[in-house]
Amino acid sequence: MTRTRTTKSLASRIELDYYRRVHPLRRWRKQLAAAAFIVPFAGLFASAKFGDESEWSPGRVAPSHAAIASDCRSCHGAEGTVTDLACSRCHEGELHVPGNDPAASECASCHRDHRADRLGSDALSRIDDAHCVRCHATAQRTIAGQQRIDAVSSFASHPEFDVHREQRPDPGTIRLNHQLHLTLDIPGRSRNLACADCHALDATGKRMRPIAYEEHCADCHSLELTGALAGATVPHGLAPTDLREELTHLALARALRGESNSIAPETPSSTPPPSPLIRDRSRSAAAADPAVQAWLAATVAESEQFLAATRCAECHSVERSASGGLASIAPAGVPSSWFPGARFDHHAHRATACAECHHDVAASRETADRHLPRLADCARCHGDRENPRAPPQARGDCVECHAYHPHRETMRDGR
Prior knowledge:
Structural class: mainly alpha
Strand order of the largest sheet: 1-2
Distance between the termini: 115 Å
Number of strands: 4
Radius of gyration: 39 Å
Shape: elongated
């Protein structure tokens, strides 16, 4: 039997409403699209609900803020802004220049977080020069109002350091001949002194430790006495009244031990001890004896005159009394820092020889010589980013050398 195929019979086999039936692939695609939209928002809602808000962060926070990276509210207020109150909960200290610039009175106006991915670990503290020159492009005065800060718009326009430009006097009173100390053939030493023998870094590696008599001077400049107290030494740093008390104690102790009659017999200037010897008498009885008192007074006076004329006066500015004793010793007055408004890391410059920045030390004979770096010494390595001819070795932006939040005392002292 022949099968008849007509257009109508063929058309009846076509599903005319096929488009109404959802294909399994289409269903999965819609479900995946909905999940891709819903799941991230659900995660953000859950993080906000249960305290982890790190997903809302526009970027990685500085390492110093890592402990609060998941708690946005610790810094951001209700409106999303960072207030000074939030900063002061953890950070103590003064604003940069309180009341001088309204914009600078807000911490977040300069310190921007969430940039550690691009700028590294110091992104929060590394302030761009644009924030500094906003005020310092014109001359400023310190808070005390007694010193003027010159206009600085870039490293290229930075003036010479004040200590050189103003020829500030050295407030130190210690007498020191660098040339003598660096070239003198000292007995018992296999080599001459070098800078590092006296100038050593502190625990931070940034600044030099203060010179200490016991550590740096005592080996060559002893406080050993002569005459009736030969062989004895006195501590360094005693005031004149304390020195006399120490000398009296040493003299009386020697007399009580019976040593005073054998001390420096060849020295005719030494006052002979009282006779008979007092070693068998108590300290109080011996001290009350007029003869012992006279001997003690003469011995103390002789030793004090010797110290004032030789040991102390060799390094210190000394005022002597009418009798030749010590009236006063001027404080050392050595500055702990010549540039209190700047910061410097000696350890970071350890590859640089001392003489490259501290010039002519080996030829210096005068105490008043100041062997301090000049601006040109810094400019050899720290260039100006805006100057294409500047050397590229090290950064030359403001906060590389200047502390952004100086104390009031620092600002009064100047750069």
